[in-house]
Amino acid sequence: MVAWSEQERSIIANLFSNLDYEDVGAKALTRCLIVYPWTQRYFGGFGNLYNAEAIKMNPNIAAHGVKILHGLDRALKNMDNIKETYAELSVLHSEKLHVDPDNFKLLSDVLTIVIAAKLGTDFTPEVQATFQKFLAVVVSALGKQYQ
Amino acid sequence: MTMSLSVKNKDTVRAFWAKVSPKAADIGADALCRMLVVYPQTKIYFSHWKDLSPGSASVMKHGAVIMQGVADAVAKIDNLTDGLDQLSQLHAFTLRVDPANFKVLSHNLMVVMANQFPKDFSPEVHVAMDKFLALVALALSEKYR
Fold first, then answer.
1. Chain B contacts of A123, Cβ < 8 Å?
2. Is a pLDDT exceeding 60 seen at residue B109?
3. CB contact under 8 A, A34 and B124
4. For B3, how many CA atoms within 13 A lie in the half-sphere containing its CB?
């Protein structure tokens, strides 16, 4: 089980309470599809992904980005039990969506960069460390059922 | 996983670099500082420094040194392998930095670029910079074995 200090819990709670899911979610998934174009393979049914402009304007991608971001709420509410919390989602991603688990890390890196762009001076090294730790735990939990 | 830079990628990198280079030393120091905090295992390469804290003289100075390397790489973007030959020798034989750390520093450089230039670090700039830094890492790894 992962240990969280009071300060880490507070940083995560604070970050999510001020989070603009509509903006950040859309930007994160959009950016992931542009920076790592092979991830587009999972979005065949989402409409026009022909170029960066099309991806940025695609409402299905934007909506799905928001959905993915809200997926992190589960971890937020169950910080002491993230592995079990994501067991079901892990099965979904491996059995049904067939997502290569390496992609979780890619999306997590992109999300970190989107948050860094959004928070400016509030995104201190300490906040970055805590946020990346949080995402790493979620990524690990999502990969658990792949074996 | 490295893919070569298109003409458009190179133009994008050069244009973005021209914009941010006045703040290069700041960017380098911030990226280095973040790396030391977020990836504490990287501190072993700086065990000879008295002070590894954010804002310390050593971190500020070394951040600037790193960015001079990046500036050099931008100038030699058409042939990174040959252009960074000496730096590769330095990293391979003298510093012996585990090449996995190049990726770590690259990530932190991009975090700082996004953080300090949010309007400019668009997805298009991001992908070009990501490819560029990966190729710089590859060039730096050339002499390792």
1. 111, 115
2. yes
3. yes
4. 12
What is each CA distance from B128 to A24, A76, A79, B60, in whole angstroms?
21, 33, 36, 26
Model confidence pLDDT, tens digit, residues B40-69: 999 999 999 999 988 899 999 999 999 999
Q: What is the pLDDT of residues A26-79, one digit of tens each?
A: 999 999 999 999 999 999 999 999 999 999 999 999 999 999 999 999 999 999
Based on its alpha-carbon atoms, the radius of gyration of chain A, rounded to whole angstroms, reads: 15
- Sign of the dihedral defined by the CA atoms of residues B77, B81, B83, B87, in that order: positive
Cβ separation of B37 and A123 shorter than 8 Å? no
Only one residue has tokens 């973005």, namely: B16
Output the average pLDDT for chain B. Answer: 95
Question: Is the CB of A82 inside 8 Å of chain B's CB atoms?
Answer: no
Joined together, the tokens standing for residue B37 give 């905090």
- DSSP, res B144: -
Contact at 8 Å (CB) between B69 and B95? no
Q: How far apart are CA B102 and CA B134, in angstroms?
A: 8
pLDDT digits (tens, 9 = 90+) for B72-81: 999 999 999 9
Region label for B6, one of left (φ > 0), alpha (ψ between -120 and 50) or beta (otherwise): beta
Residues A106, A36: contact at Cβ < 8 Å? yes
- Plot region of B49 (φ>0 → left; ψ -120 to 50 → alpha; else → beta): beta
